[in-house]
Amino acid sequence: MTTLLSVSHLKKYFPISAGFLGRRVGEVKAVDDVSFAIPEGKTFALVGESGSGKTTVGKTILRLIRPTGGDILFDGRNLSRLREGELKPWRRQMQIVFQDPTSSLNPRRRVADIVATPLEVHGIGTPRERLGRVRELLDLVELPEKYLYSYPHALSGGQKQRVAIARALALNPRFVVLDEPTSALDVSVQAKILALLARLQQELGLTYLLISHDLSVVKNFSDHIAVMYLGKLMEMAPTRELFANPLHPYTRALLSAIPVVTDEELALIPERIILEGEIPSPANAPTGCVFHTRCYARMEVCTQQAPPQLEVHPDHHAWCHLFTSEGSSKI
Ligand code: SF4
Questions:
Q1: Edge-first strand listing for the sheet containing 23-39
Q2: Which residue from 232, 233, 291 has its CB within 8 A of the most atoms of ligand 1, so it is best to mutate?
Q3: Whose Cα sits closest to atom 6 in ligand 1?
Q4: Separation of 67 CA from ligand 1 center, angstroms?
Q5: How distant, in Å, are the alpha carbons of 44, 116, 233, 239 from that of 220?
Q6: Interaxial angle between packed helices 187-204 and 157-169, expressed in degrees from 0 to 180 and rounded to the nearest 10
Q7: Would you state the pLDDT for residue 327?
Q8: What share of the chain is helix, strand, coil (3-state, %, to 5)?
Q9: Most buried of the four, 81, 143, 175, 288, by CB within 10 Å?
């Protein structure tokens, strides 16, 4: 399988300034040494609580923000080294769908104008050709043509997200970051939008990076999952393997919070684990393992040393001192 995107030792640090002169007094490690790869046509999910750094990973990959370090290889080209002016042809191939369609759509523009915006920005087609392409796109996302000249306020949440998806697809991208694409929607609409995204992936051969705080959303939608906490990866595995055999205490806690419907699901979900406290501020991340202040399996070493990456089972990686390099667990 061809790898479309690979991220290697990605870092994004934001400076903390203080005083009248704005002196730099520290930094927030929003993304710290994150590596993964996504094969073409597949979905890779980044999961974690708010503040884990997953959205910053997505924005850094798209070069909406500049990485502090690491490499972003897209179709063999290292985007992290390109200057702003060199990014334009690559930006056509990489798009994003944001969480909240209400704030991501300009309320003063009509659907036809919103969806045509990327074509205008890239100078593609005449106005008539662009309108033809907008009609095609609305058909693709199953939004009736009668909404062509509507303003966003006249649309439901699900319809607005269809407009946002149509706009993201206008330039025929190969890779789309889906940043919590359903979390602002009603439960009944969420399933329809996920079904639409799955169909579009099949028909157009799209590769997705799905960002979500909710493991139940990614369970049936992704091929591979990485769990993040305070800017770092905690565990990474194929989706089926992660649900069948969660290793990291944080993953087990997230999984235990998923509502279950069937006996089969109940057998897969660990006993309810309630994490103590809030996620610490990334400006003041704990030493050693960043999860140690909330971990129910914490050991002495966890407060002093950051755990290394271990491939505990084939293609199943964990960053936790509980696992030895031979793959045996101390749990
Ligand atoms: Fe918990 Fe220690 Fe593993 Fe961190 S390294 S998750 S604190 S057991």
A1: 23-39, 3-18, 69-74, 77-78
A2: 291
A3: 320
A4: 27
A5: 12, 32, 21, 8
A6: 20
A7: 45
A8: 35, 25, 40
A9: 143
SS3 176: strand
> Token match 């006996």: residue?
263
CA–CA dist 4, 79 (Å, integer)? 13
- Antiparallel, parallel or unpaired: β 175-179 and 94-97: parallel
Query: Residue 142 class from Cβ within 10 Å (0-12 exposed, 13-18 middle, 19+ buried)?
Result: middle
175 and 207 Cβ atoms separated by less than 8 Å: yes
**Ligand 1 within 6 A of 194 CB?**
no
Residue with tokens 């334009």, as numbered in its chain: 88
CA of 4 to the centre of ligand 1 (A): 32
Does the pLDDT of residue 262 top 70, yes or no? Answer: no
Rounded to whole angstroms, the Cα distance separating 141 from 98 reads 16
Residues in the chain: 331
For the stretch 267-307, pLDDT in tens is: 666 677 878 788 898 888 999 999 999 999 999 999 999 99
Does this model's pTM top 0.85? My answer is yes
Residue type, 135: R
